[in-house]
Amino acid sequence: MKKIGLLILGLFASLSLLAAEQKPLEKMKWGHVAQGRMPEEWYASEQAQQIAEVVMAVQKTNGGWYKNSQMHKLTEEEMMDLMRKKKEHSCLDNYATTQEMRFLAHVYKYNKDERYRQSFLKALNMILECQKKCGGWSQYWPLTGGGSYQDYITFNDDLMTNVMLMLRDVYENEGDFRDLTDEATRERCRKAFDRGVECILKCQIDDEGVKSVWCAQHDTVTFLPTEGRPHELPTFCGQESAALLEFLMSIENPSKPVQDAVHAAAAWLDTHKIENKATERYTNPNGEPDVRVIDQPGNALWGRFIQLGGKTAKKTQKLFIKHLEARNKTRKVVYKGKEYKYAEADNARESYDPSKAYQPVYAIYKDSLQNLYYRYLYNYEDTPPITDWQGVPQRTSLMPVNRAKYQFLGNWPWEVIYGEYPMWKEKVDGANEAAIHGWQQITVTADMLSNTKGKDYNDARLGTIKLAPTTHTVAIPEGKQVVRVVVHGFSNSDNDAILSAVNGQACNYIFPKKGYNPVYTTHVIDQLQITNDQLSLTFSDSQCCVIIRLYVK
Q1: Signed CA dihedral, 444, 248, 420, 261: sign only
Q2: In degrees to the nearest 10, what's the CA dihedral of 19, 20, 23, 25?
Q3: Are 372 and 347 in contact (CB under 8 A)?
Q4: Are 141 and 89 in contact (CB under 8 A)?
Q5: 412 with 272, same domain?
Q6: Does the reported pTM lie above 0.90?
Q7: DSSP 132-149
Q8: For residue range 452-501, what is the model confidence (pLDDT) as tens digits?
Q9: Which of 6, 329, 335, 505 has its CA 20 to 30 A from that of 425?
């Protein structure tokens, strides 16, 4: 123990000295440092190596790390606490474990210290070991047990997709992960990834015979939506579903089941939006930070939690009550000097209104209001309380603090279904057609472009490239003949952008003005004559952010 104490003191002293020399690092979050946002040369530095020593020193005995630890600026007390808890469970929530692995891999690339690699492999082995039979992952390893929501398949906070992205990076054997593992381990990672994709597809909620979206947590046996913390009810989940949809679209050469899942989720989200609305932060008449819903043309909102409907709702509610009954948690409240008891199962059972299917639903998680745990609320903004089955007044809406601190309404799916999905669909459909015709798909990069004004090309959202209103020339690979051009993007101003000529031939392809959110448009050009060695695109009126895809033979 004395040696450990000396090690900690030595590491802490080194980090304190280095932090004093590198003040910008102190201002960064660990997630940014760990996931490669420092200058590339920094990962070869002595400072990065010192932080790697800390990361290895606090690694859990079972292979992972705990969440929310700022590894690059731990206090002595924080480090001692992590050292004392090395034998406790590891965590995969909030990017925990995967971000420490990414950091070690990045530092190892420049400093071939075998200890970094072994620490990485220990964590990777834990991830492979803790994958469930159903193909999913949970928040902690070993599992907490006792019917805890922490043992379910967890999509919340991108937990499962973060794990799967790590596995994919390892088996693709590129960049920071090149030759970190042997071929047999990479194959294990590939198989675990494939099982994870199968799990995601099995969890996609059946909505009256049609595949829809996902919940934040799913049961490991039935794959039905299930509960999380007291404010995370078993529902359709707007935020998690947008992230899962984006992940599925990142899979190269997607299988037919993956394609079907993407089409179904995008269609469901489009159908269940709250049109022309946005949220606005303000100070309410009581002087409290608050959030309200306002009119906003060109925007849409989705519920973080949207109540289930039909047969799935009945099955899920039954499972939900069963879980809460097995957990057997009873909460207390004192009203007019008398104590009343509230079982979580009763809260969920009595407050549930099946007529509210497909509407946003809310719940409260606050230690001083435990009598409300797992109680369904259907009103976002303040509404009068009601008298419950015990004669006690109960809330029917969220409180200002709930609205201000947790995003129950948001537009998370907007860019996914109106920006990425059309682009993905065109790419997949184009690949299917290209396979028939023997064509090749080429996505144009900035180094393939030049323009009459000599301007540089900057990246914009969703991987688009900003094109000024002028003529841009695309260098076509030697020996290739362009048979189709696809331009996907949006105007970067409040005026329409127009693709007005292709190779000098007049045309009129419009990219609508920006408005509250970008309006993405896809134009397919296959009727114009295109020369073999170059392609020119003339934009007018406004800057346009686009992705250009060529189909060549």
Answers
A1: positive
A2: 0
A3: yes
A4: yes
A5: yes
A6: yes
A7: -TTS---SEES---TT-G
A8: 888 899 998 888 999 999 999 999 888 888 999 999 999 999 899 999 99
A9: 505
Residue 3 token pair: 């040696």
Q: Is 99 helix (H, G, I), strand (E, B) or coil?
A: helix
Whether the per-residue pLDDT at 513 is higher than 80: the answer is yes
Q: Does residue 411 contact residue 517 with C-beta atoms inside 8 Å?
A: yes
Residues 194, 311, single domain; the answer is no
* Cβ atoms 154, 138 nearer than 8 A: yes
pLDDT of residue 455: 86
Helix (H), strand (E) counts: the chain: 16, 24
Per-residue pLDDT at 20: 44
- Among 203, 222, 254, identify where a domain stops: 203
What whole-number distance in Å separates Cα of residue 257 and Cα of residue 261? 6
What the block records as the tokens of 38 is 């420092």
Last residue of a domain, one of 180, 203, 226: 203
Q: How many domains does the chain fold into?
A: 3
CA distance 348 to 163: 32
> Which of the four pLDDT bands, split at 50, 70 and 90, describes residue 105?
very high
Segments forming the whole domain that contains residue 538: 439-552
Residue 470 confidence (pLDDT): 95
